[in-house]
Amino acid sequence: IRDSMAIVPQGCKLLARWSDRMRSFSAPTAIFVFLFSIYLLSYSGVPTSDDEHLYAAVSQNLVTGGAFEANQLSGNQRLLGIYPRAGPLHPIIGALVIAVIRLIPQFGEFQALFFLAPLYTALTAALIYHFARREGFTKQTGLIAALGFGLATIAWPYAQTYYREPLAMLLLFSAYMVLTSRANTPWKWAAFSLLLLGAALTKLYVLLALPFFLIEIVRKNRAKFSWRSLALAGLIMTAAVLLWWGLGLGNYTRLNANIWHVAIARAEQNLDELRSVEGLKALAGMLISPGMGLLTYSPVLLIGTVPLFRQRNSPDRNLMIPIGTLAAFLAGQLLIY
Fold first, then answer.
1. What is the pTM of this model?
2. Which of helix, strand or coil describes residue 182?
3. Maximum CA extent, the chain
4. What is the per-residue pLDDT across 88-123, written as a single tens digit (0 to 9) for each?
């Protein structure tokens, strides 16, 4: 009996710990549920661009014939039914959704794809709150950041689409959260590698952020870096690449390289044009014009400056990745597009 009674305090302690952990996840869960509900109220299931038709067609063909094709859009004068084979992770996830939806009669598989972006965006907002609390911000600040992101930026309109950007955003921010965590285990580096790889396989554009991630890794881990962690991360990346080629997706690497050559040529042309006054006006318009300026039309970019307002007593402000990534994305958008 005495031994049985001794177990009670230990059980109470475990229950208290479990309760504390559940309480720490209650606010992010509430944010996710609230924003996902709002997005469902604004849900349309109607595409706004032929790019959405393209990815939906690829997702459907993956389920039907297992091929990355978009034959349904052969009559489209811009796409000509050709899938550029960039960012395959997005249509692959869509194919999984379609495969499940086809088991449910009288449910539109095309419309089901439009539930993914609300899911990604609401989850990103919940992670923003969790990140803010982890980094020492108050609950009010975390709530403002999460709801401001979800309801007062272009993230909301994107949540009504079947674009790949919401997924790339979720994976890239998740990779940043894992990298800036205080843990230093092999599993941390494995998770970071997979998330960053997933973001790149969703949209190659996110590779512009890679140099800043690498600089931050070297800066923070020169003294405590574990070769075991490096080996595990390298092993997972190698396995992912082998799986990539094993699935017959190796040709996409060559095709994506061609896409980058076109982007670089376009950037060189735009740099030449920026030497003129008209080019500088166009540059200013891309940044601050009321209609299409990146910093006004898409104020979500300003969230990248959040680390500038961290608590002054914080020893590590993690400025390299958000500010560097923001600058790289802005420069890439201006020069390539």
1. 0.78
2. coil
3. 88
4. 899 999 999 999 998 887 778 889 999 999 999 999
Which among 316, 299, 294, 295 is positioned nearest to 307, based on CA atoms?
A: 316
Strand positions, DSSP E, the chain: none
Q: In the structure encoding, which two tokens stand for residue 8, read together?
A: 């009670």
Cα angle, residue 110 at apex, residues 104 and 113 outer, rounded to 5°: 90
What's the pLDDT tens digit per position in 253-310?
444 555 556 566 666 666 666 666 666 676 777 777 766 666 766 655 665 566 566 5
Let me know if 128 is exposed, middle or buried by CB neighbors in 10 A (0-12, 13-18, 19+): buried
User: Cβ atoms within 10 A of the Cβ of 308, count?
Assistant: 10
Contacts of 42 (CB under 8 A, 6+ apart): 156, 159, 160
Alpha-carbon torsion (52, 54, 57, 62), positive or negative: negative
Structure tokens at 12: 């109470």
